[in-house]
Write a structure and sequence with these properties.
Blueprint lengths: L5 E6 L2 H11 L3 E6 L2 E6 L2 E7 L12
Parallel strand pairs: 1-4
Antiparallel strand pairs: 2-3, 3-4
Length: 62
């Protein structure tokens, strides 16, 4: 069985994502810095970090 402990994603809109995950969906906010935040997602941690480059990151989830 594969257990994912932590996933890190990068976003230009990390603050809006924090508001969505915490305020709208009700996930537990574990920590927050000026560059990102972490929430509890089941037994895992989802970390969203501020993306500091001009190109936007691209993620593909099947």
């Amino acid at each position: 069985m594969l257990i994912i402990n932590k996933v890190t994603l990068f976003s230009h809109a990390w603050n809006e994502m924090r508001n969505f995950y915490v305020d709208v969906l009700g996930f537990e906010l574990l920590s927050q810095t000026v560059d990102g935040f972490e929430i509890k997602a089941g037994e895992s941690v989802l970390e969203i970090k501020k993306y500091h480059h001009k190109e936007k990151p691209f993620y593909h989830f099947p």
